[in-house]
Amino acid sequence: MTDRPIDFEENRYANVTNGPRRLRPAVLWLGVLGLVILFIPLTFMSILLSNQADRLASEVESLQTLVESGQGLPQEQVLSVTLTAVSQQTDQMTQILPTLAAENVDWAAIMPLINNVDADAIRISSLEQVGNQLFIRGRAANDDTVTQYAQQLESSGQFAQVVVQTIVPLPEPFLSPTPTVVQSTAVPPTTTPTSTPTSTPKPTSVPMATWTPTPKLTDDYEWDDTTPKPIFLGTPSQLHNFYPNFDVDHVTFLAKMGRSYEISTDFLAPGVDTLLTVTVGDTTLTNDDAALGLLSSSVIMQAPADSDVEVLVQVSNRGVYGADKWYDLLVEEVIPTTPTATQTPTTAVPTVTPSATADLRDIYEPNDIDPNPIAVGETQIHNFYPSGDVDKVEILVKNGRFYQILTSQLAVGVDTAVTVDFNGESWQNDDYDLPGSDNFASAVCFPAEVDGTAVATISNVGQQFAPSKTYIVTVQEVPFLTVDPEALDFGTLIEASGNPPSQTLQIEGSEPLDWAVMTETTWLSTDIVTGTTPTTLTITADISGLAVGLHKGEITLGWADFCRQTIPVTLQIDPVVSFDFNGRSLFAAKAALFQDEAVEFVIAV
After folding, report:
1. Is the pLDDT confidence value at 203 over 50?
2. Taking the domains of the chain in order of start, what are their residue ranges?
3. Would you tell me which of 60, 454, 499, 604 could form a disulfide with 163, CB atoms 3.0–4.6 Å apart?
4. What is the rounded CA–CA span in Å between residue 317 and residue 381?
5. pLDDT of the residue at 10
6. DSSP class of 267
7. Is 180 helix (H, G, I), strand (E, B) or coil?
8. Distance of alpha carbon 564 from the chain centroid
9. pTM over cut 0.90
């Protein structure tokens, strides 16, 4: 070691010379690592390309196999099926094309032909197309005009066939037809004067529905038709009613040996006529009327002297049934009166006083020939007894009013029929209800066109006669209903042709009346079944399936509960005959000629 001074410049150059030698191995390792990183994705890409090449080779092989076998490609098979379906649809459309073309009416060509008419002799009202057929409806001055019009259409060559379906005479002349008012659905504007203020009503609240209990209409002792209820002596009477129809009341009490009792009815409501049947052991006692002029009943009985006994009392009604048909039933103990012996001369011949025979007829008999009066608003109870009994009643009626005679509350076996005769006219009814209703009551409503006396005859179609065959007859004034016209005629139609035009009824009432319509004629129908007067009712006739000949039907209007009015309907079906128009066939209905009358017609082309 020398004491030479340090040369800093030399050391600096020495460090620079040794630096690159130390970094060279690190650079080499970085290069190797980069090559490795680059090689990995190249390897994956190589594997992926190899797999895709194998898959494509497999698909090419399968396609070559299909081509060699002659089956064709899958896309080709799908396209072949689609092409076949389209071809079949095209064939179907080709087949129906003539039909569609036939139904396509050339309106531009035929409308001038249809409208080529003399307006003073014929008028077209409507055209209707059904399939490939047109229906021309209109009015003409006479049937010759219709025939000439049909010939004109036939000779045009535009129609394969011309058929005159109907020719119906009209009551009014052609030159003064009744104009048809077409009601618009639009509401016309209403002009409100500005000087008069209008107020908008406030909405009213709708009350909530409340539950109302069903009132009890029977008496407090029901049901006692088969199970008797006890009645006690010395207590207030029991209050019973005869409800529902054919109600029978039963009571029972204990009668002590040797004592006497009176069973009686009293305070009968109008229309009640009691009949008592008292059973004491094997003994039966009955009473209808306690005295002449009374409808209440009374029975006095005595219990056996050696034992107490249970007494059964039955109370039936020979009068009217209803919730207001009340009566009192009372049982009292009575002291039998001991008759005082009367000295009778031995020379005197004892006189036998016959007991009166009960008259089981109603109180209005005899009225088979001479009718008994009945007032408007009055109700009478009659029976059909004796055998063959017929009841007649007479009513004073006034001009311009409408009356109803009604039977009701018919006993079993009673089937009334009512006939009213007045002012040379007659009205009849057997059953006002429909068949199957088990209601055999009758009702006749009739107008009075003059003051006078109408007579109603009431008979029993059931032909059962007995004191128990009762019924009620009532007369009352009711609002009346009128129809215009009172009969309908659809005229003469060709066999198997179209239906005739609908007809209308104008229904009016003396006041707004609710009405209902019904019919049992299968070829008739109405546009509505109920309404309120005034109303227009449309009636349609369907002639499909009807045979050649005259057909009669009817529709019935009902109002005021039991009033009925029947409107007869007629329709004539004639066979088809042919006429020769210019050498071509024209079919028309065989109908009478109405040379001077306006007609309504239907022509099918």
Report:
1. no
2. 229-322, 372-479
3. 604
4. 12
5. 53
6. S
7. coil
8. 17
9. no
DSSP string, 70-123: T---HHHHHHHHHHHHHHHHHHHHHHHHHHHHHHS--HHHHHHHHT-S-TTTEE
Q: Label residue 290 exposed, middle or buried (CB < 10 Å: 0-12, 13-18, 19+).
A: middle
Q: Which amino acid is at 117?
A: V
pLDDT per residue over 102-120, tens digit each?
Answer: 556 677 788 888 888 888 8
Of the options 1.20.120.140, 2.60.120.380, 2.170.150.40, 3.40.50.700, the CATH number for the domain spanning 372-479: 2.60.120.380
Give the pLDDT band (50/70/90) at residue 338.
Answer: low
Let me know if the fold of 229-322 is the same as that of 372-479. Answer: yes
Give residue 573's Cα distance to chain centre: 30
Provide the pairing of β-strand 133-140 with 122-130: antiparallel
Give the whole-angstrom CA distance, residue 156 versus residue 158: 5
The first and second tokens of residue 448, run together, are 């009075």
CATH fit for domain 229-322, picks 3.90.550, 2.60.120, 1.10.760, 1.10.10 = 2.60.120
Query: Which amino acid is it at 564?
Result: R
Instruction: Give every CB contact of residue 278 below 8 A, 6+ residues apart in sequence.
Output: 263, 284, 285, 286, 299, 301, 311, 312, 313, 314
**Mean pLDDT of the 363-389 span:** 92
| CA-wise closest residue to 380 among 396, 393, 389 | 393
The type of residue at 219 is D
The residue to which tokens 């509505």 are assigned: 528
Q: How many C-beta atoms surround the C-beta of residue 352 within 10 A?
A: 5
3-state secondary structure 504-520: EEEEEECCCCEEEEECC
Instruction: Look at residue 554 and give its three-state secondary structure.
Output: strand
CA distance 474 to 459: 15
Non-local (6+) Cβ contacts of 301 within 8 A are 255, 260, 261, 263, 278, 280, 283, 285, 311
Q: Confirm if 400 and 448 have CB atoms less than 8 A apart.
A: yes
Separation of CA 352 from chain center: 68
Nearest to 576 by CA among 175, 192, 161: 161
Rounded to 5 degrees, what angle do the CA atoms 115, 118, 120 make? 130
